[in-house]
Amino acid sequence: MRKIRRKIINSGTSKSDSYSKAIGTDSPGIERIRPSRAPPGQPISEESSSEPADDRQLLDYYLTKRKSEYSSPCDVNLLAGSFNVNGKEPKEALDHWLLRQNETPDIIVIGIQELQLDADAYFSEYVNAKESEKYQKCQESWKTSVMLALQKYNRPFQLIVDERLVGMYIMIFCSERIKPAISKVDTANVGCGLMGTFGNKGACSVSLKIHETSFCFVTSHLAAHQNAIKKRNQDYESIRHRTVFRERLRILDHERVFWLGDLNYRLDIPNDDVRFICQGDDISSLLPADQLHAEMNAGKIFKGFHEAPITFKPTYKFDSGTNNYDSSPKNRIPAYTDRILWLTKETDSVECLSYSSHPSITISDHKPISACFRVRTEQINKQIYYSVYKEVNSWLDKHENELIPQVAVSSKAIDFGKLKFLERATANIQLQNTGKTPAQFQIIDSKVFSPDRDVYEAFNSNIGLSIDPNKGILPPDSGDASICTISFDLNINKEVVSKFNFGVKQGGNYVNPLDDLILILKLRNGPDHYITLSGDWTYSAFGMPFIALTHSFFKDVSISSLEYPATCLVLNQLVKAECSSSNSPSEQNLHPPAFYVLLNHIVNHGFMERQLFQINGDPDEVRAIIDTIDAEEVVGNLESLPGSVASVAEVLLLFLNSNPFPIIPYSHFELCTDLVDDHNLCKSMIEKLDLRSQNNFQYLIMFLKEVLKHGKINGCTSEFLAGLFSRCILRPQITLKNREKADLEKRKSVQFVRQFLNEDESSLI
């Protein structure tokens, strides 16, 4: 017999876990909603069930089937606006963008991109107070301007949540009428710029409920440039996979999703033709050349999303302060970079009333856009709900043991094929309910399996594997609805590549991490199914410790030709062996060949490159550079690398940050960060390092100082470079879960590196 336990819900929100931040922090002058919380699928009330998630999921399934008995539709009016402000201050009134004459919205969602353009914005929270003040000032100025416009409505609006990541900023306001219906507010952000993680590109997202309907609002800024379609698609997938809210909710788990921002998709049509068409009023001939529509129609991105018909002219790129398309030497092709899309799980639940651009606002090189929606939400009759709840719960208690599910699994052995660093591998299986009862499933790691446990945490891999969905319920006898495609996505990025290089010890041998992972597809009240994984790992210099890349075992050999288990054995033995001063390698072997080649390429070609280390490399070029380094037998003999300076710069960052060990050994972290205010003591700490660490540190610092000499052209500052390179130079072995303490450690690492970037070059020698 399942027991129902009850508890009183606190009306305040708690701080979120490491996946996202709740809205508990007050901003001066802004009142925030602190909504009541209730378990999934249950209306807000003084009492709520605290049943295990496993029970709750099945209960929700049956409650949803009877939803029409206890719920009624309630429409809300929503205004969504997006604006790439190009780092400009809001010197114009925003009324034309945000005010509507005919109908006052209940919810207003504002997404801003390029709030701050200077490179220091990436690390403002980790540097001095002056930079942090600048970071906050531009945010507050736009928030104030938006609120001034909203004050002109005939009803007051309240900011319920905002979230920022570098230049991306999302604000959500609500009217007093709808305020009591909003709950479960949570935020998350994902960077997918440089190295796939930096916040110069990415998304800020908000999850909330209006009545009993879940909403997700996303504002994003995807990769730029005409031909970067593949990178934009990758950014979308990265945001979709990596955005995780409280209760492990992802973007597409919500019933209503609104995605707005500078998606950066362009028009594949000659520049002169676009400009000629834009001189008239009929722009319909532009739309077949729109990259976003082409990618959506091909099923590559935004599956199931909708966009209202576009009736306005391209919103990018303009000469700032005018309505004239770009007249600079770059002469950009006008394009529909700024978009608003939506996704709903129920037919006819979202109606787009208008979709517009606002050319009268000329602050930026983009024009703001907006869309008005009428959105259906579900309102709960609590009395009827609890009556249905008791009936369903009682029925489950009596019949649970009779609900024996049966499923067919298309494959229980998944082979990802050839695996490479930074090359995503995917595989799918199909799960079909072949029985007469709902089949509730969950995929777990066999290592956490216990026959005494009924409930498990969501699958969480430490080798870059994601499973979507990793749990759910398949209805019986429902045609396509009884079939579920489960996607296994393996992304061997800079965070996990070293685990594939080192392998996992199994008995007396080392094996591929996939060989060490066995998954269990658990069926509630049904038999378990075991799923094995495999893949052929191609060794990479990325994720290799420097001590290995300068060792004789790896000399004059193509890294990609190495094999398990011999390489694993050598790597693990090298790491265990301490390097004393007496057995330090000779001078010529101190720098890994790949390190030398990457730095040398930028020295020869990149110091005068604008926005050095600030823009994404081309994905195909990045792939080619990585493959060249891994395939070359004598990397040090490479005279040049394929691709642009931006691509080589990104690969350098990937190489340094994939190293499982920082340049300054972990054992010196606390000693170094305790001395960040004293330059001479910082310098003395470097002199105490082993010879290899000393030379690699000085080699990198001297390179960065040369970059700074050309800072007026390449846009780099000491604050920016210290923030960008501090992690690969100095970091703790264990990242603290406490955000404030972790930020303090990061700040000290940045300050330590800055001590050397601001000193005389002669003092390094």
The order of strands across the largest sheet is 5-6-4-3-13-12
Q: Which percent range describes the beta-strand content? A: 15-25%
| CATH architecture heading of the largest domain | 4-Layer Sandwich
Which topology of the largest domain does CATH recognise? Deoxyribonuclease I, Chain A
Output the CATH homologous superfamily of the largest domain. Endonuclease/exonuclease/phosphatase
Report mean pLDDT, rounded to a whole number.
86
Question: What integer value in Å does the Rg equal?
Answer: 28 Å
Instruction: Indicate the overall shape.
Output: globular
Give the number of DSSP strands: 24
Main beta sheet strand tally, sense and closure:
6 strands, mixed
**DSSP helix count?**
20
**Classification by helices and strands:** alpha+beta
Q: How helical, in percent, are the residues?
A: 25-40%
Which runs of at least 5 residues are low in confidence (pLDDT < 50)? 1-53, 579-588, 761-765
Total discrete domains = 3
